[in-house]
Write a structure and sequence with these properties.
Layout lengths: L3 H5 L40 H12 L4 E13 L2 H7 L16 E3 L4 E9 L5 E6 L12 E6 L4 E6 L7 E6 L5 E4 L16 E3 L11
Parallel strand pairs: 1-9, 2-6
Antiparallel strand pairs: 1-3, 3-6, 4-5, 4-7, 7-8
Protein name: Gamma-glutamyltranspeptidase
Organism: Faecalibacterium tardum
Keywords: Signal
């Protein structure tokens, strides 16, 4: 793993938001869910070096979101704290410092725990309950919504057969990204999605999206 100090010494600034295959430009929805805020949420003046390094790499690749798959538990639960405690110690130190107001659990609980963040701190991150297939044009219930790009913990996918949440990033330049976090049955790692940088296996994100 490259040292974070060397990476952060690079003089590059974060790249602008990359295009995501034909995604429509949509206004951010109303903040009806628990923990929602339409205003910037008081981002820390200083940021962990690990997170800053991932943001820079993902920004240079034009990605809108970053993900770390932290592990799974045998039974579905809504207790994010218990799941985090049951998993091996994470190499990403900032994960343990994510406060409870940025813990999100799918309705009915989940088995897979992810850390997810918007690449740009100006952007807004939402988590929704997956929409009803009978109403594909309607967004599911809002579970989280906040501007500032801070990382969240998302506990989701109580069943291996299907996803139960949707993550949306609204970029400050007008781009947007919709994504259903889930594991690949063949690799056991997050399914690769265009616009999402997967750092689960280390600092270097996957080359293909």
């Amino acid at each position: 793993m490259k040292t974070f100090a060397a990476l952060l010494a690079l003089a590059f600034s974060l790249a602008g938001c990359g295009a995501v295959d034909g995604d429509p430009v949509r206004p951010a929805p109303g903040s009806a869910g628990q923990g929602s805020s339409t205003a910037a949420s008081g981002a820390d003046s200083t940021e962990p070096e690990q997170l800053a390094a991932m943001r820079q790499l993902a920004g240079e690749n034009g990605d809108l979101a970053g993900v770390l798959y932290l592990g799974s538990v045998p039974e579905r639960t809504t207790d994010v704290h218990a799941v985090l405690d049951s998993l091996p110690e994470q190499p990403w130190q900032f994960v343990a410092d994510i406060p409870a107001d940025r813990w999100v659990a799918a309705p009915g609980g989940g088995r897979e725990l992810y850390c997810i963040f918007a690449v740009r701190r100006e952007d807004t991150l939402f988590v929704y309950e997956k929409q009803d297939p009978q109403y594909p044009n309607e967004t599911g219930k809002e579970l989280y919504g906040r501007q500032g790009g801070q990382p969240i913990l998302l506990l989701c996918n109580g069943s291996r057969e299907d996803t139960d949440t949707m993550v949306t990033v609204y970029c400050s330049t007008g781009r947007s990204l919709d994504w259903n976090p889930q594991l690949s049955g063949s690799t056991g790692q997050p399914v690769q999605v265009e616009g999402v940088a997967d750092f689960s296996a280390g600092l270097k994100p996957a080359a293909d999206h």
